[in-house]
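ingest -> validate -> predict -> emit
validate: passed (alphabet ok, no gaps, 585 aa)
predict: started
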Amino acid sequence: MQSLPYKLIPAGARQAAAGGLLSLLLAAPAWGELQLKIEDVPSGLEQNILSRTALHEEACEAPAWRVRRLFRRLEKDIQPALQAFGYYRARIDKQLRRDQQCWHVELNIEAGPRTRVRSRLLQIDGGMGEDPQLAEMLAQLPLAEGEPLHHGDYEAIKTALREFALEHGYLDFAFTRQQLRVYPAEDAAEIDIAADSGPRYRFGELSFDEQPLSNAFIARLAQWQTDVPFDPRELSALDRRLSDSGYFSRVEVRSRRDLRQDESIPVELTLQTAPRHAWRAGIGFATDTGPRLSLGYKNRYLNTRGHLLDSELRLSPVESGVGVQYRIPGENPHQEYFSFGAKAAHEDTETAVSDSFTLGAQHVLQWHGWTQTRFIELLYEQSQVGDDSIDATLLMPGIKMSHTEADDVLRTRHGYRINLEARAAYEGLLSSSTLLQLRADFKIIHRFGDAGRVTLRAEAGSTIGDSTGDLPASLRFFAGGDNSVRGYAYESLGPETAGGTPVGARNLLTSSVEYEHPIVDDDWWLGAFVDAGNAFDTDAIRLRAGYGVGVRWYSPVGRLRFDLAFPDDTSQDEWRIHFGLGADL
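emit:
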């Protein structure tokens, strides 16, 4: 039979006022009643007593002989529960009565004094006894001298010692003495535990089957160190590094303790390579670019040194392009790579038409959570912006820095993103103009408990050098669009020709404040926002603002965003719809 739930009931006004009396009642129409009264005991003891008492599981129609038998053995059932919490001199008073409906038991327990730890001896022989981290762990163990006895805490001490031994490579750890001596008449207990850890094992060589990648490159992927203390967490980290590299579809890591020699444990890998050729396709839609189609191809095994070929074709009514990149892993492939590539792009917006071709080289380095990209690009671009027809060639070295931190990439409660970029060109060095361009943007998300969340966003940019008329369209600043000032069309804000056509600017400043609130679980949200900013040439900026409301839906394929935005200048549009799909950061 299954135990019924119980509830706390007062045991009298005087005792309740004293705060030291609890009463527990189990009752149901077809079950007996067991009333338990016990004073001033630690949390969990009452439930422990009930869990060891078989009587309260008996129904009213249970035979009288069985109820009496279980009633007689109540003390025997309850004593271990009390002793587990250190009560060895408890007094138990019980009464059984039966009426025409059911049986009733009243159980009164005087717990008495609680046993306390008089001494605790922990003796660790072997290498673990000299481990400098052991003293810190021992200081955190329960049941120090003077503390009340709890048998669960005694078992926790032994568990902690075993786990410490495993995590630090003492694989021969074994207890040689485990004694908990209790002196009920003295309300005292003595703990005496001794163990021999044996030697501290270390990691040995890494072995794996023949692969299309060279042994030297796999070793760089593994970042494996031999002759360091054995730690099972490092095995998990090795699995993660290899699985995240993209070269393998399955990774299995095994420590071969059966082959250990001279305190060294070899590690064996089973690696299943991912397909050499990988194709990917995507489809999407955004207000700025309209429908989008992408097709990509990757070759993971150009050679045994892990070189990659990655290419992508992107098509949309506004922006289209094709690019190819040859990637060479660095000394630590997880943190560094070099790439060489080329791309061609076509852009056709309401403000500009441009065709460009770029050759470039990059050095990408992961550094303390930041991604640093040093690059040099040779750009050739023909563009028509307003009345300006530009034919530009620019050789631009530069650097990018980016950092993203989020508690959840798809449903961010707290997180932020920072992007910084600087690039330059000099007219006397394969360039048609001289410039220094700086860009920065950030986004911060903060949620207030289970309520709504606030998103702050800002973007700034500035170009120092020749006049705006010498810059190709891709290096001019425009504002307006889904991720800029909503309420205005894509790249529709900035200095204009006499006919009102935006021509781009040397500077950019935009910002946004948005509040979103869940309305159906955490899947459907309502939002309200205010965006402001513009692109400008002079020191004075003519701010344009957009404001509106929107709906967000966290679909299985990502967050869908639908906004209705209103501009502060209605000379172009009275309102605009903005639609997007993507992650929060």
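The domain at 7-110 is CATH 3.10.20.310 (Ubiquitin-like (UB roll)).
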